[in-house]
């Protein structure tokens, strides 16, 4: 009988996780299958308990459920500190363990682009689940963070949490232009610009500067409006593809104990994005 894995989120129709993980299972000859499941916040506890009861191997958690999932699982120390979960392991049927692989994925993706975050001034847009993981990772790696969010109180709260591992301060969305001018790296952790709203962006080229690294964690589309604006300004664009692949690869290893085929996963996502 196949072992079932999946991703829970709302919306979730856009997710390429099924294509990526199913390609990895096929490459390694594993009798497993991965599906996308639309789950809202009020149904999450039931969905997790049901998946565990039915013998799922594990699930990924995406927006808007990453923080909500903490209520229903035990967490490893990193996920507990971050305060958000994106991977849940069901291998111990009496215990659901939550992990967060987003920070690792972001670190590996930006390193692939030849960027070292240590001692860099980083402006991070958004204060949700993905932002928490990236903020903790990069603050711990020695970056100086400014976290900007439309609801300023959420940015302030996240910055206070992140101060346990490094330097961070929180602000609202005012004065972003001045802050970008002083930044080495700009990271969008929001869903702005994600398919199907591909014309949307928080920042445009006139507020960027040459040499600024612009990292958009959105991977669908591969080149978001924000990254197009970055190119126009002479900034350095980094798309969210490899963060997505690396966070998925880390989840795959947690669930199966196997080293996943990274190139197969990356090429599968690229083909799907082209189609």
Question: What secondary-structure arrangement, pairings included, does this model have?
Answer:
Blueprint: E1 3-9, H1 17-27, E2 32-38, H2 44-53, E3 58-61, E4 74-75, H3 77-82, E5 87-89, E6 97-99, H4 102-112, E7 121-125, H5 129-140, E8 144-148, H6 152-162, E9 167-171, H7 176-181, E10 185-188, E11 213-216, H8 225-232, E12 236-238, H9 241-256, H10 262-274
Parallel strand pairs: 1-2, 1-3, 4-6, 7-8, 7-10, 8-9, 10-11, 11-12
Antiparallel strand pairs: 3-5, 5-6
Helix pairs in contact: 1-10, 4-5, 4-9, 9-10
Describe the structure using short key phrases:
275 residues; alpha/beta; globular; six-stranded parallel β-sheet; six-stranded mixed β-sheet; 2 domains; 12 strands
Written account of the structure:
The chain has about 280 residues and is an alpha/beta fold. The chain folds into 2 domains: about 5-100 and about 240-275, 3-Layer(aba) Sandwich (Rossmann fold), CATH 3.40.50; about 105-240, Rossmann fold (3-Layer(aba) Sandwich), CATH 3.40.50.720. It contains 10 helices and 12 strands. Helix 5 links the parallel strand 7 and strand 8 (about 145-150). Helix 1 (about 15-25) crosses helix 10, helix 4 (about 100-110) packs across helix 5 and helix 9 (about 240-255) crosses helix 10 (about 260-275). The longest helix is centred in the last third of the chain and has 16 residues, at about 240-255. The chain is globular and about 55 Å long. The model has no long low-confidence stretch (mean pLDDT about 95). It catalyses: shikimate + NADP(+) = 3-dehydroshikimate + NADPH + H(+). Homodimer. Pathway: Metabolic intermediate biosynthesis; chorismate biosynthesis; chorismate from D-erythrose 4-phosphate and phosphoenolpyruvate: step 4/7. This is Shikimate dehydrogenase (NADP(+)).
């Amino acid at each position: 009988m196949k072992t079932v894995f999946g991703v829970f989120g709302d919306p979730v129709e856009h997710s390429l996780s099924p294509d990526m993980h199913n390609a990895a299972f096929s490459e390694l000859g594993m009798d497993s299958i991965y599906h996308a499941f639309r789950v809202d916040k009020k149904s999450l506890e039931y969905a997790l308990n049901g998946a565990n009861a039915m013998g799922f191997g594990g699930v990924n958690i995406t927006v808007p459920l990453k923080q909500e999932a903490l209520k229903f699982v035990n967490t490893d120390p990193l996920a507990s500190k971050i305060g958000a979960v994106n991977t849940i392991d069901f291998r111990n049927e009496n215990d659901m363990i939550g992990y967060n692989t987003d920070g690792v994925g972001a670190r590996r993706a930006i390193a692939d682009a030849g960027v070292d975050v240590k001692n860099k001034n980083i402006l991070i847009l958004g204060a949700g689940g993905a932002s928490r993981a990236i903020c903790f990772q990069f603050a711990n790696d020695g970056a100086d963070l400014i976290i900007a969010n439309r609801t300023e109180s959420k940015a302030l709260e996240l910055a206070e949490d992140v101060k346990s591992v490094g330097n961070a301060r929180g602000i609202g969305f005012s004065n972003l232009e001045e802050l970008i001018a002083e930044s080495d790296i700009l990271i969008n952790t929001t869903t702005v610009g994600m398919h199907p709203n591909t014309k949307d962006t928080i920042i445009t080229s006139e507020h960027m500067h040459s040499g600024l690294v612009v990292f958009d964690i959105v991977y669908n589309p591969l080149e978001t409006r924000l990254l197009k604006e970055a190119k126009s300004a002479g900034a350095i664009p980094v798309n969210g593809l490899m963060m997505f692949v690396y966070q998925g690869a880390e989840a795959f290893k947690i669930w199966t104990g196997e080293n996943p085929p990274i190139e197969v996963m990356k090429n599968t996502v690229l083909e799907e994005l082209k189609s």
